[in-house]
């Protein structure tokens, strides 16, 4: 399977967000996987497709968004694990796994950190939450051998602006009652 490219636009205006979504899907063959209002009163657009199409839609979206754009991100080859996370499909952790947690100030930084982390080490994405009910933040959990989880967290944190990183944490052997990654 060829990894899709990802485009992300976050706008300060809900109304302009809908206009941008319409413009970019008219401009190029992309699939909008997230197009919704997020906390606190912003609009988030995440779209996928081949690199050329996402690039064309991204350029159009930025132009139509104008000064209403808050954040943007384009990843030419999104990790299949992060794609699954965006679609609500995540892996399961094993009882012997370490659990890594990474929290960011923005959705774009969370996606970039997650994509970098899962490409850096042999880990599984076990939870991803973006913006909803968390003030526009993003966070995710990873499971695997402790050394791999540590390397993945280090890579994910290094991939984003330090001012956007809220926290990284690791739990060596989480209790079975811990819900993230152990459903």
What would you say this structure looks like, in words?
The protein is of the alpha+beta class and 183 residues long. It is built from five helices and eight strands. It has helices spanning 14-27, 51-65, 80-86, 107-120, 146-158; strands at 5-11, 31-38, 42-49, 69-75, 98-104, 124-130, 138-144, 165-171. β6 and β7 form a beta hairpin. The mean pLDDT is 94.
Distance between the termini: 27 Å
Averaged pLDDT: 94
Q: What Rg, in angstroms, do the CA atoms define?
A: 16 Å
Query: Which second-level CATH architecture of the largest domain applies?
Result: 2-Layer Sandwich
Helical residues, percent: 25-40%
Task: Name the CATH superfamily classification of the largest domain.
Answer: BMC (bacterial microcompartment) domain
Our count of helices gives 5
Lateral strand order in the biggest sheet: 2-3-1-4
- What is the domain tally? 2
Per CATH, the class of the largest domain reads Alpha Beta
Structural class: alpha+beta
């Amino acid at each position: 399977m060829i990894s899709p490219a990802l485009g992300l636009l976050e706008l300060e205006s809900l109304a302009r967000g809908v206009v941008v979504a319409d413009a970019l899907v008219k401009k190029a063959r992309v699939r909008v996987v997230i197009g919704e209002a997020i906390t606190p009163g912003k609009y988030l657009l995440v779209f996928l497709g081949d690199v050329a199409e996402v690039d064309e839609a991204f350029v159009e979206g930025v132009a139509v968004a104008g000064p209403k754009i808050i954040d943007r991100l384009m990843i030419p080859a999104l990790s299949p694990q992060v794609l699954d996370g965006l679609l609500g499909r995540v892996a399961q952790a094993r009882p012997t796994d370490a659990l890594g947690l990474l929290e960011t100030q923005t959705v774009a930084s969370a996606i970039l950190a997650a994509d970098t982390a899962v490409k850096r080490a042999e880990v599984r994405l076990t939870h991803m939450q973006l913006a909803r009910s968390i003030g526009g933040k993003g966070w995710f959990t990873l499971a695997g051998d402790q050394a791999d989880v540590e390397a993945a967290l280090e890579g994910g944190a290094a991939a984003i602006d330090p001012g956007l990183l809220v926290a990284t944490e690791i739990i060596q052997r989480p209790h079975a009652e811990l819900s993230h990654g152990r459903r």
